[in-house]
Amino acid sequence: MEFMVHHHQEPNRTTARRGNLMRSIIALVVVAPSTPLLARQAPPPASAPASAPAPSGELPAPGLERLLPELAALDAKVLSDRLNELNARLKVISDEAAPLRQAIAAHEAELAAVTRRTNLLDSIIKARGDGPPLPAPPQPAQGPPLDQWLDQFLMAEPKSLADHLAAQQARIKALNDELTPMRQKLAAHEAELPRLTAWVNFLDGLLKARNHMPSLPPKPPEPSAQPPPSAPSQAAMAPSNAAAAPQADAKSAATVTFREHVSQLFAAKCIGCHNPDKAKGGLVLETYESAMAGGGSGRVIVPGAPEQSRLFRLVSHVEEPEMPPHESRLDDAKIDLIRRWIAAGAPADGGAAAVGKVSPAAPRVVFEPAIDAVARDPDAPPVPTALPKDTEVTAAHAPPARALALSPAAPLLAIGSEGCVLYYHTDTGERLGVLAFPEGRVEHLTFSSDGTQLIVVGGQPGQAGSVVVFDVERGARLGRFDKLYDAAFAGAVSADGGMIAVGGTNKKVRVFDLFDGARLQEFTAHNDWVFAAAFSPDGLLLATADRAGVLFVWEADTGRTVHNLSGVPAALTGVTFSGDGATLAASAADGVIRMWEMEEGRTLRQWQAHNGAALGLTWSGAMLATCGTDGVVKLWNPDGGPIRSCEGQGDWLYRVVFSGDAKLTAAGGWNGSAFLFETDSGKLIRTVSTAP
Description:
692 residues, alpha+beta, six-stranded antiparallel β-sheet, four-stranded antiparallel β-sheet, 26 strands, flat
């Protein structure tokens, strides 16, 4: 009985589906009544001539009764794939048609001008006849300009006029020869365009209509006159199969969840733009809740309906703007993962089968608490004691030494590499250990004032950024700060070790408490990437500088703006305070070092320090060190007077630092080397590599 009921209901369902589909088709035909609509036929290839006969708009026998069921039964993915192909072809036509029209217009304008000149020249030759040229008048011709021009033509050699006429006629022929194929190609595009547009509209409407209909059950097989004796009857199998298949499909689809699968895809391909810092289009894909909330144009995910979900349509390139921007389309497996997740009801995790059964979002990790403190000998210099000397990270060449720091309390140099930090003994050049930084590329390094901690700033450009505090001796992670969505560039630690400031491509500067990870301040006044930051020696002021040449000085504890030192005509690359905090110095991409006094923010002095960009600077006592793209480290008096130059290295130097006693000066170079100089003499005493 159950089998009989199932089959009696089937014609009613099919009839209803056909009715819905027919109404969709009628609506689409009304929109474009002048275009023959035949969705089963592929559009003509790009090379098809414009004169190719258009296919008939009549449906093939036996007509609608055969075509409608076939359209209704087509898999949605088949329709979506075909729609993608048609949209791609439309884009090709649009991209080609615009320059064709411009070229044709330019050719036609030139053709008209050349034709007029040719006709005029032909008339002049005929009017002159074959007579000899008129001799030049003994004195310059007088009278109106027109009379002077006429005299010029009468004095011209007949052969010269004839040659010029032939050249003009040849140019007319060349223009016509070039115009003919361009006009033919444009005509072919214009003939193809309305048909493609109609097909795209039809398929788009068909997909939308299909989203409101349940899928047709599979067509039962034709009954067999003599079923195999061992096979169960179709009547016995049909009910169980009909019930089991949807359950199996639902279970398979439900295994795709946001937190276990989709969030990883978003993190790799989408978070760079759709994070809380940037929120392009108002959309944030960091958490399940923010993704389901949508963006400025509303919801982008419709649970159970991938083809109605704007997010799916953008990543599958059915709708513009295509996502991810400026990249190729995601591979089919990734797009199918998003499709299956939405089709299953867009579950948050394994415990939430669909929207409405959402588990609470996991709290955002801002800080990883410090590990239990271990007693150390206060008289022993803080150097690595138990770190591996080698790393599994491999590189084809030594990466540039963008980040380096000298310990203020030990003979220790830290250099940033790809995915790790390398420790070297400054007296011997021996590698003391490798500190893993799987977050990505190291952009900035800073030791705490007692040398027991190393703050590492970096990440993967365009994807994620991290600020991690390490115990120098053991290499243990003491804390990780605020999740970033692009690589951070700037880092600074207050002299008392209580605060850390971080800046980068999000154009924000955030200040954290180094002990508990609490965010103390957030500065949002910068309108460009923040390249540098520095605390004053007393920790009361924080200076931040950006790529647009804007420098702010803030009260670190209150967030109040003390000085806005904008107006530098080049990107600022580094900032540093004098030992008494009364003066601030900055390096810039124009090679100039600038100084301001902090009482009123007045400019004290500036001077051209480097031929090329000045990329880094640091202050120690009464001495300032700078480096730049000219490959030279230079030492200066606070008044801008030169002290000495260290031995030139002939390549870009990114950063320069002093040791705690200022006896050593270190600089990191583009060629993957860090150079140690004797400060008093400027002599190079050691070179170490960033090669992991």
